[in-house]
């Protein structure tokens, strides 16, 4: 397997990882206003993704993979909404620990990383094509 082919496989692993990151971010944004149904119920808890470099023995190179998807242990927001069905005795509900501004920033970063991996694949394909043209 050529180094250019290996670089394409490594870039593909990066694209898969960023695609999974985008899925987690989308889930966080979709649930940014999800609260419990009854007093004392916890609202949606933000998810965070962790990556790891894994040695692929077949490629002879490290590639990126999703290590874990965990729950953010940050505090929930307390909001005073006495008429809400999930309000406690003091009239407060718990809101998810999702900050949409952070999620949008993470989404942009993931998108740029995905695009960088895509450009790497396109550059490798172009170099392989040029190599084949030279050899003909």
What does the model show?
The protein has 136 residues and is α+β, with helices and mostly antiparallel strands. It has one domain. The protein has 2 helices and 4 strands. It has a two-stranded antiparallel ribbon. Strand 1 and strand 2 form a beta hairpin. Helix 1 (3-30) packs antiparallel against helix 2. The longest helix has 36 residues, at 100-135. The two termini are 20 Å apart. The mean pLDDT is 93.
* Annotation field: number of helices: 2
How much helical structure, as a percent, in the residues? 40-55%
Q: Please count the beta strands (DSSP E, at least 2 residues each).
A: 4
**Could you tell me the mean pLDDT?**
93
Number of domains: 1
End-to-end gap: 20 Å
Uncertain spans: none
Q: Give, in order, the helices and strands.
A: HEEEEH
The biggest beta sheet reads: 2 strands, antiparallel
Based on secondary structure, the structural category is alpha+beta
Largest sheet: spatial strand order: 1-2
Strand content: 15-25%
What is the 3D form? elongated
Oligomerization state: single chain
Radius of gyration: 22 Å
């Amino acid at each position: 397997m050529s180094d250019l082919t290996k670089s394409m496989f490594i870039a593909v692993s990066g694209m898969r990882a960023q695609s999974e990151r985008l899925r987690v971010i989308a889930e966080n944004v979709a649930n940014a206003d999800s609260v419990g149904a009854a007093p004392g119920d916890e609202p949606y808890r933000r998810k965070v993704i962790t990556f790891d470099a894994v040695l692929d023995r077949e490629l002879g190179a490290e590639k990126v993979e999703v290590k874990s998807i965990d729950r953010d242990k940050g505090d929930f927001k307390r909001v005073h909404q006495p008429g809400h069905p999930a309000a406690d005795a003091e009239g407060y509900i718990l809101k998810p620990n999702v900050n949409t501004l952070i999620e949008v920033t993470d989404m942009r970063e993931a998108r740029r990383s995905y695009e960088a991996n895509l450009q790497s694949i396109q550059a490798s394909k172009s170099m392989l094509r040029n190599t084949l043209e030279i050899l003909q």
